[in-house]
Amino acid sequence: METRGIEQMFDFQRLPSDGLILLLLLLYSPVGLCLMLLRIFIGVHVFLVSCALPDSFVRRFIVRVMCSVLGLHVKQNNLHLRDKNVKLYVSNHITQFDHNIINLLTSCHTPLLEGPSGFVCWARGFMELGTVTGSRTELAQTLRGYCSDPEALPLLLFPEEDTTNGRAGLLKFSSWPFSVADAAQPVALRVKRPFIAVNVPESSWLTELLWTFFVPFTVYQVRWLPAVQRQDEESHQELANRVQELLATEIGVVSTQITKADKAEHIKRKRHTVSSTTHRDLGARPRTVVQGFLGSSAGAEDPRVVRMAHQVKEVLPDVPLSVITRDLLQTNCVDTTITNLLESTEQYHTEPAKAAPSGPSRPLTSATPTVPASSPTLKPTAKSFGKSPADRHMSLQDRKTALYDYARRRYIEKHGLDLEENS
């Protein structure tokens, strides 16, 4: 899936982009803050009750009712399809509390794959694996031994190994969870909440918990699917792909080949792009504070910018002065602006020579030197559109070279420089 598809699978902004919804969220903020403080106090009691009561139907019912007060509303469908003999539940992954929600409906364990162990791991409802810190193969062997115990509770695993927004597609299922048992019970999960996104990449579980307490409610829809048995000579990856297709069809999303590593790489690239843009903007505007208060029009009236604009105008007389000034405010360099304008594909309305204002160092009586007949045209075009990417690339390179040579010759002739010294 292309970059656009990856963008649709994750919410990189928590707040909505719609102006009306953002206004409603702003009006709701005082209520949300008070609700969050109240729910933090109630959440401590929910935690204590869940620790004090033994694992049973009564405990799950009480905790589920108390979680409704915290804004976590859980619904389930097709409960009759749940096979009590299956030791492995697999589900799509949307929030960092998916395992807690499913554990409200049935007793199961979710092993901690990443993150700190100890009290935080236990408090979040994860199962510690002790000394198992090696590869996924070693982890699968340990869990396979766990499932071989008839008295052991079922395992809940997330083959995606990372979260999505649950609206566009599923990450590629890893094969190791399906090596734990020969049968798996798919669990389709949907999450909805008003105002804000259900999760944001690289956000901590504590931050997500506070936002969950802030919004009015979060609805978890759990749907049980029939158990899937591994067929003869079917590999673990083939079984993973089959279950992935079933869950994608049930949820109404697409089944992708994007992995957890692809998501991490996309986030890293996105972060690098933002930082590069910020760095370029700061470097292009040494007077950032002044321009921040006065705006770009104030920078355009700077005598230094005006002088540089006239220098560029002498080299590129056909480019409007407003376009030159706008690019100079970003680059703060004559050479860089000339290069940008030569490589730009933007079409400009040609300005008459008399319309171009004169700089202080340019006399009004000076005549514009004529361009020799051998000079290349300003915008040479290819005779035909190249059939291959290589041909089209060479055509573009030829055009850029011709434009650069033309601008260089105009500059040398304008200032009476020696062509041999500037070669």
Q: State the shape.
A: elongated
What is the terminal separation in angstroms? 48 Å
Low-pLDDT ranges: 284-298, 353-385
How many runs of DSSP E, i.e. beta strands?
Answer: 8
Count of alpha and pi helical runs:
15
Helices and strands, in N-to-C order? Answer: HHHEEHHHEEEHEEHEHHHHHHH
What's the Cα radius of gyration?
32 Å
The amount of beta strand, in percent, is: 5-15%
What helical percentage do the residues reach? 40-55%
- Average the pLDDT over all residues and give the rounded result: 80
User: Biggest sheet, in brief?
Assistant: 6 strands, mixed
Structural class by SSE content? alpha/beta
Explain what this protein looks like in three dimensions.
Belongs to the AUP1 family. Its main location: endoplasmic reticulum. Residues 389-398 have a biased composition (Basic and acidic residues). Keywords: Endoplasmic reticulum, Lipid droplet, Membrane, Transmembrane, Transmembrane helix. It is a peripheral membrane protein. With 423 residues, the protein is of the alpha/beta class. Among the domains are: 1-258, no CATH class; 304-341, Helicase, Ruva Protein, domain 3 (Orthogonal Bundle). The chain contains 15 helices and eight strands. Strands 1, 2, 3, 5, 6 and 7 form a six-stranded mixed beta sheet that branches. The chain has a two-stranded parallel sheet with strand order 4-8. Helix 12 packs across helix 13. The two termini are 48 Å apart. The model is unreliable at 284-298 and 353-385 (pLDDT under 50).
